[in-house]
Amino acid sequence: MELDLPFIWAGLIAFAVLAYTLLDGFDLGIGILFPFLKNREERHLAMNTIAPVWDGNETWLVLGGGGLFAVFPLAYSIVMPGLYPLIIAMLLGLIFRGVAFEFVHRTKRMQGFWEFGFWGGSLVAAIAQGMALGALVQGITVEGRAYGGGNWDWLTPFSALTGVALVVGYATLGATWLIFKTEGETLARAQRFALPLGIALTALIGAVSIATPFLRPEYLARWFGWPSGIWSAIVPILLALAIWQLWAGLRDHDHLRPFLATVAIFALSFAGLGVSFYPYLVPPSLTIAEAAGPDSSLGFLLVGAVVLLPMVLAYTGYSYWVFRAKVRPGDGYH
Would the pTM count as exceeding 0.70? Predict the structure, then answer.
């Protein structure tokens, strides 16, 4: 049986993007929440909860971006010019955030500056990612085999909405991560953050979900057509269940369930995007098959992915298992 290599690679890249969103999402969420924590000791405690894993989490961004370049070069060459300002802003935010993460523990005189950098870099990266997602969902203008839009096509009310939604989503992930990883006053503060953030996230997901089908007729047919609408309805039903679990976990003062429920909310929202997008890679003009490179290249790269991806997954899982315990004041390796 012949393998559908473009479809397999689309699934692998989608998995890498989802893994990045989930794993680096709570890192960015802690940065977004940084100014709202009580004091410097509590802020550094929050940083120590992600210190062993934050840089490894960004591996998935490299796999997603590099995979798009290698496997779907036509899509890469079209999407990047349309999103250059957002991609540059995201990378600068991530770089500044990474430098601040290390420097904040190396200096006393400039500590406040680097704490601001950690917050600012996290916020800028989250906004840029959310707006880039919104710009991609609303559609990229293609002329021939190149980007055909203007310099500001990415800046719309819908992309602004998705930018705010992702910031709130990352903050919710960060708050529930702190519930899972901390104790005492920090835990209680994170629980107070999580409930209003969860409510805001639910409202924003609802707003994006209502707006998305009306952006393009293809989306409307996929969500409300027959019989595709029946299968598509599974996603919002499961999403409502995940939102209920988030609320129930916070109500019951469960330490792990709110984080897992928020992860499920992100995964199901991502699945909803897949329902809207398929079979397009760059809506509304470029399908997965049209954007893919030669099968010989895809097959060669797949051999490497089959070898390396399980190793990355194993290492990631092992890292989280080793550092699974609660983090207390004074813990950390800086």
Answer: yes
